[in-house]
Amino acid sequence: MRAQWPELQIVVIAFDADAGRKVEVQQALKRLGETLRGTGLDVRELKWEERLGKGIDDFLVKDTAHRNKVEEFLKESLASLNRSEVSVANPVSRDRSRDEPRPHQQEVAL
C-alpha cells in the first residue's frame, strides 16, 4: 500500500456503529489499525452512536450537522499534515471515557 500511494499519511477508519458491540468486528478493527500504524500511517477512527445510523452513509444522510462535523474533522486532519502534527484536537469528540489515543491514532466520537 505504501508503495502504491507513497504520499498517503492519514487513514480514517469508519466501521459500522455496531462494531462496539460485536467482538469479532472489534478485533478486526484493532488488527486493521495496528497494521496501518505499523506502516507509519496516522490512523484515525470515526465512531458514532448506532441510533444515529448503522453505517457512515446512514450517519451522514440522517442529519446535515453530522456531515458538517465529519467535514470539519477531515479538513483539520489534512491541515495537520501541513503543520507536521501527528494528531489534531477534535472539536466534535465528546467521549472522554476512552483510553488516551496511542501515537499515530486519533479516535473521534461523533
Q: Summarize model confidence as the mean pLDDT.
A: 78
Could you tell me the strand content as a percent range?
5-15%
Strand order in space, largest sheet? 1-2-3
Radius of gyration: 14 Å
For the termini, the CA-CA separation is 28 Å
* Annotation field: number of helices: 3
Unreliably modeled segments: 86-104
- The helix content, as a percent range, equals 25-40%
Number of domains: 1
The SSE string, one letter per element, is EHEHHE
Shape estimate: flat
Structural class: alpha/beta
| Quaternary structure annotation | single chain
The major beta sheet can be summarized as: 3 strands, parallel
Let me know the number of strands.
3
